[in-house]
Amino acid sequence: MKFRAIMGALCAAGLLGGVATAQAAESLEVLHWWTSGGESKAVGVLKDDMTKQGYVWKDFAVAGGAGAAAMTALKTQVISGNAPSAAQIKGPLIQEWAEQGVLVPIDSVAGDWKANLPPQIDKIIHADGKYVAAPFSVHRVNWVWINKAALDKVGGKAPTTWPEFFALADKFKAAGIQPVAAGGQPWQDLTLWEDVVLSQGADFYKKALVDLDQKTLTSQQMVGVFDTVRKIESYMDNGRTGRDWNLATAMVINGKAGMQFMGDWAKGEFANANKQPGTDYVCAAVPGTAKAYTFNVDSFVFFQQKGQKAATAGQLALAKTIMSPEFQEQFSLYKGSIPVRLGVDMSKFDDCAKKSYADEQTAIKAGGYVPSLAHGMAQPDATAGAITDVVTKFMNSTQDSKSAVEALAKAAKTK
Ligand code: GAL
Q1: Do 139 and 297 contact (CB within 8 A), yes or no?
Q2: pLDDT for res 24
Q3: Where is the signal peptide (predicted)?
């Protein structure tokens, strides 16, 4: 590795000239969707680490929160025989790609992973008994972000129930502050909707969105979920259609809006704007979800490269770096997440991250640790897509809750 690092540095400085061609540094083409301020800073840590190790980082960033556009680009690349070295893939989609026979195992660098990962997550990154993905961090999805000055102005406190939430939203409205910042994109609609499903209890969430239990999906309680979403929607602005999530976060950062429902990658934006939790903003679990935790774990998979049977040296180095304690710490500090690797020192993390970590432990013990549907952790792509369509259609029309529930029950049968 040392030799490679030296070679890399010399090549970068142009000192090896023609001699270097025989030892050309391996290029790593990396497909991801981390393009917001906080996200770019976080992925920049990996880029710098790999460059220091002598590899050439070829950034293949495809903008678009939650990665729908990135996933389309990836399919095109793979079909045309130009699979990237690594791509941001997570949840059941890892298995779907592995089944295509295009991924390479990375077991040779994963010797200590099992002992250092929560079992739920260790399972997700395996296919056919081999490690095929390297996990970055754990994002909690069920958060509400609140501007602290706005909160103080209206004399409010972070809501823990829906009635408290609507009372606070009314106060913001009366004070001329947009109560809820949102971006009208399908995945953002689904993020809010799954938050409200979770507020009915982790068991309800599991039955509905993990087991796809028809009785739960068609229950009166589920009709109530859509009613609540409709009511929350009435506190959003008309300009939200197509707005990116980070622009909605910016509305909370600058006090134009009071609150945003978003996973803690939003914290990466607050951090990037030098805002401190407790002073500038408040992180609170979505009303009714204090003991539950929707998890979203980003990971990279590694594609077989032309003329190679197994993972290349660069792919293995990438996987190894992603799971190293130093990288895990710095990445999450920028990203708003917490390290997925167990036992990483949390002393440099802010109170929201510490709360995330503590709540994660509580939720794991109490059975409230559930995979996020909106972020590709709970269902295969086709099922998640069909449910997303139902929720987005509901939020962009005047459809009544009962017929949305009927559509939901049908969508859940999509395979
Ligand atoms: C999520 C992803 C996060 C964050 C977010 C917005 O699906 O897991 O890392 O990037 O999308 O783009």
Answers
A1: yes
A2: 80
A3: 1-24
